[in-house]
Design goal:
The chain has 840 residues and is α+β, with helices and mostly antiparallel strands. Helix content is 25%, strand content 26%. The protein has 6 domains: 67 residues, 2-Layer Sandwich (Phenylalanyl-tRNA Synthetase, Chain B, domain 1); 114 residues, Nucleic acid-binding proteins (OB fold (Dihydrolipoamide Acetyltransferase, E2P), Beta Barrel); 192 residues, Phenylalanyl-trna Synthetase, Chain B, domain 3 (Phenylalanyl-tRNA Synthetase, Chain B, domain 3), CATH 3.50.40; 64 residues, Phenylalanyl-tRNA Synthetase, Chain B, domain 1, CATH 3.30.56; 237 residues, Bira Bifunctional Protein, Domain 2 (BirA Bifunctional Protein, domain 2); 87 residues, Alpha-Beta Plaits (2-Layer Sandwich). A hairpin with a 5-residue loop joins strand 15 and strand 16. The N and C termini lie far apart (85 Å).
Length: 840
């Protein structure tokens, strides 16, 4: 909300600069997000002038040469060239002298226009940022009921320049949605006097209003509806001071009646709506729920379809406005309006929020109603509007006021105990100081034996409901910064990461150390993601998705069941901006309803399972090109498997990639696998391991859907492969991790290295061969890995040769060839049982 400081100072004017006011409001809970400047850059050089003479410009048909009396601002009349069609002799006008600083910061200079020297500028209202008008000059005659004297500083008549406070008003503080409410906060925060409520004088009256009927059919959605009738209304422009304040607040002046409704809303926080009463069919208004599919043309000219949860105001010919959101085009105030029905009502906040969200129509009115206004504000706004209608429109108030629903419930009374204030804050606050603070904020107080009995004002009834809330009010105004900083009195209290947190950080460090970048995606996702990932109708990642009750949008209406969607979105965004090679990972929570999912998460009372997952996506080269490696290898299944092994190795967990493809339709069926916990095995043995996730190359259709299918070929050494990805249950992986790593002697005794080559059938995985070798080698086999693979005519069709590096080590002695010979023999026997033959 924008609050012009010049307007705020009319009601509370502390002897502080704008920076001090900003700090004091922020420190007491009314956060000032920013301070803007509105109007001219400096008020010097702007004065009142009186036009003495106007004559045609000798060289330009559309220009006029004016002689202007500037009083004491200049000796003798000034010659000013003006292009406005409405300039005339005898007018009091706004003049900028040479050197005056305009709103854009530039200094006005004397100029020669078509051969005539111009010694200033006669101003239109938009050149002072006090209104949108530019078709004519700003005429000051009649301002404040008189004719200002030439030479009078213009700042004495108009708010030429003001700081504007941009406030962040939280939903629990509707009292700060009006300038006077902010003034009350400033009064409490600084002790500066607060002016009386501007609506204390009411030109209107209460009682029956002849010729107008109002029927409220849904009082639960419309707690109060008030209306007053004004006759003899003269529609015209608002006075400059009102335009200036609205412009500074960010509102566009339109005409005096509409401007009055906006001005009163900004002052009181209560929205109003003005009907052209001659266009209210039958002189009757009915407040009711809309019918499904019912349509209304709103003030912005748009036709909007309603549903039965929305509220409309209708007259004898049908709906004429959407309650609490926007008025209708049919009964809007226009130049011919002579009778105005001023409606000020209170609406159900959640219903207005839903209506505004469903229609995609957010207005200043709806943004206030959805925060929960008080019914009592209706009469305050009516009184303020009546003052301005009489003063600015020449209107006559018709006796009576329609008031359906009346004020809200009686104020709640809460006991505030001195002892409890001291216990909560840690320091005592005198009862007199508590009373001073609360009364400054609009609360009524009465002395009690142990403290104060506090009556809550209407605008705070939803925010202040218990003693702790009153203590908060006392603390924030008395000064939270004054409270002593103390630590809890606990012996042996210290902060440290849990074992799981340390392991999780270790996992992230492994990925970051290999050149991957962490990204953070939305927890919410779109229902369309399941189709884009080609998930089957019965896939748990589709059927177990948890819908949100109040989503931000359809695109964010489900809790995600996989991290892959957000990784693909981030990858597509980067590729669209020319980043061809990507190495990304994300750690985040995924969700599934009815307890579905891995074992590493937590089951909530809502029946929603959630656990932390880790996902990786690599596109293009596995590492950046360099002078030593201008064509690094492209990411593929085995590169991703290497990342998995590095991650698992850092955590001390044995993992394997099962031979069968992962049951994931978004992966290439021949280049994917399930990630399981345990030794690298194949076939039925691997199928018995605990499934931790999946790994593989993306299906070409998925890569094409996210436009990720072309960069591998474009990269150096590219082979046109799709990106590779993996996702694992990080919580379960950490649960399997070794929290404490034991010491292992690696240097006391050297290892004995032996190589052997074995020929195996192609359908025997290398993982199965290595598992057999490790099992046969026993404790003395320190390491075994494949260092070469050969296939060719010498081996025979359907076969391949695996070259294995075997490393034997003892922690007690140096091993000899003779000592490891029995182990080597057992290893050869194990390989022969797999159908292997040793190569010579």
């Amino acid at each position: 909300m924008r609050v012009p400081l010049e307007w705020l100072r009319e009601y509370c004017d502390p002897p502080l600069g704008v920076e001090e006011i900003e700090e004091r409001l922020t420190m007491t809970g009314t956060k000032v997000e920013a301070v803007h400047r509105h109007g001219v850059a400096g008020v010097e050089g702007f004065v009142v002038g009186r036009v003495l003479d106007v004559r045609a410009h000798p060289q330009a048909d559309r220009l006029r040469v004016c002689e202007v009396d500037l009083g004491g601002a200049r000796e003798g009349p000034a010659t000013i060239v003006c292009g406005a069609p409405n300039v005339a002799a005898g007018q009091r006008v706004a003049v900028a002298l040479p050197g005056a600083r305009m709103p854009d910061g530039s200094a006005l200079r004397a100029a020669t226009l078509r051969g005539v020297a111009s010694e200033g500028m006669i101003l239109a209202e938009d050149e002072l940022q006090i209104g949108p008008g530019h078709e004519g000059i700003l005429v000051l005659d009649g301002l404040d009921g008189g004719a200002p004297e030439p030479g009078t500083p213009l700042a004495q008549l108009l708010p030429l320049a003001t700081a504007v406070l941009e406030l962040e008003v939280t939903p629990n503080r509707p009292d700060c949605l009006g300038v006077y409410g902010v003034a009350r906060e400033l009064h409490a925060a600084t002790g500066a006097p607060l002016a009386p409520e501007p609506w204390r004088e009411d030109p209107g009256s209460f009682g029956p209003l002849a010729g107008v009927q109002v029927n409220v059919e849904c009082p639960e959605l419309n707690p109060r509806f008030t209306a007053r009738l004004f006759e003899g209304v003269e529609i015209g422009p608002s006075p400059p001071w009102l335009k200036a304040r609205l412009s500074a607040a960010g509102q566009r002046p339109i005409n005096n009646v509409v401007d009055i409704t906006n001005y009163v809303m900004w002052l009181t926080g209560q929205p109003l709506h003005a009907f052209d009463f001659d266009w209210v069919a039958g002189g009757r208004l009915t407040v009711r729920r809309a019918h499904e599919g019912e349509r209304v043309v709103t003030l912005d000219g748009e036709q909007r379809a309603l549903d039965e949860e929305m509220v409309v105001i209708e007259d004898g010919e049908g709906p004429t406005s959407i309650a609490g959101v926007m008025g209708g085009e049919r009964s809007e105030v226009q130049a011919s309006t002579r009778r105005v029905l001023m409606e000020v009502a209170n609406w159900n906040g959640p219903n207005i929020h839903r209506t505004s969200w469903a229609l995609g129509l957010r207005s200043e009115a709806s943004s206030r109603f959805e925060k929960g206004l008080a019914p009592e504000q209706c009469t305050e706004a009516q009184a303020m509007a009546a003052q301005l209608m009489v003063a600015l429109c020449g209107a006559r108030t018709v006796p009576g006021t329609i008031d359906v629903g009346g004020p809200g419930p009686a104020p709640a009374v809460i006991r505030l105990r001195e002892r409890r204030v001291r216990e909560v804050l840690g320091v005592p606050v005198a009862r007199a100081r508590q009373r001073e603070i609360l009364q400054a904020l609009g609360f009524a107080t009465a002395d009690a034996d142990d403290g104060l009995d506090v009556s809550v004002p209407p605008l705070r009834r939803h925010d202040v409901t218990r003693e702790a809330d009153l203590i908060e009010e006392v603390a924030r105004i008395d000064g939270l910064e004054r409270l002593p900083a103390t630590l809890p009195r606990r012996r042996g209290a210290y902060g440290r990461l849990t074992a799981a947190q340390r392991l999780r950080r270790r996992a992230l460090d492994v990925l970051a150390g290999r050149g991957l970048y962490e990204v953070v995606g939305w927890t919410f996702t779109s229902p369309a993601l399941a189709d884009r990932l080609r998930l089957a109708p019965d896939d748990e990642r589709r059927v177990r998705a948890v819908p949100l009750r109040n989503p931000l949008s359809t695109e964010h209406s489900l809790l995600r069941t996989t991290l892959l969607g957000s990784l693909l979105d981030v990858a597509a965004l980067n590729v669209a901006r020319g980043v061809e090679e990507l190495r990304l990972f994300e750690v985040g929570t995924i969700f599934a309803s009815d307890g579905a999912g891995g074992q590493g998460g937590a089951e909530r009372e809502t029946g929603v399972h959630e656990h932390r997952s880790l996902a990786v996506l690599v596109r293009g080269a596995v590492r950046p090109a360099s002078w030593g490696e201008p064509r690094p290898p492209q990411a593929d299944f085995f590169a991703m498997k290497a990342l998995l092994e590095a991650l698992a190795g850092a955590l001390g967990v044995e993992v394997s990639c099962a031979r069968e493809p992962a049951p994931a339709p978004f992966l290439h069926p021949g280049r994917s696998a399930r990630v399981v916990a345990g030794e690298e095995l194949a076939g039925e043995e691997a199928a018995g391991g605990e499934v931790l996730g999946w790994l593989g190359e993306l299906h070409p259709l998925i890569a094409r859907a996210w436009e990720l299918d072309s960069a591998a070929a474009a990269a150096p050494g590219g082979e046109g492969r799709a990106p590779v990805a993996m996702e694992i249950d990080l919580d379960r992986l950490i649960a399997l991790a070794q929290h404490e790593r034991g010491y292992r002697d690696l240097i006391s005794f050297p290892a004995l290295r032996q190589d052997l080559a074995v020929v195996l059938a192609l359908d025997v995985p290398a993982a199965q061969a290595l598992a057999a070798v490790r099992a046969a080698g026993g404790e003395l086999l320190d390491d075994a890995h494949v260092f070469d693979v050969y296939s060719g005519p010498q081996i025979g069709e359907g076969r391949r040769s695996l070259a294995l590096a075997l490393s034997f080590r003892s922690a007690e002695r140096t091993l000899s060839d003779a000592q490891v010979a029995p182990l080597r023999a057992r290893i050869v026997e194990a390989l022969e049982r797999l159908g292997g033959e040793l190569r010579g």
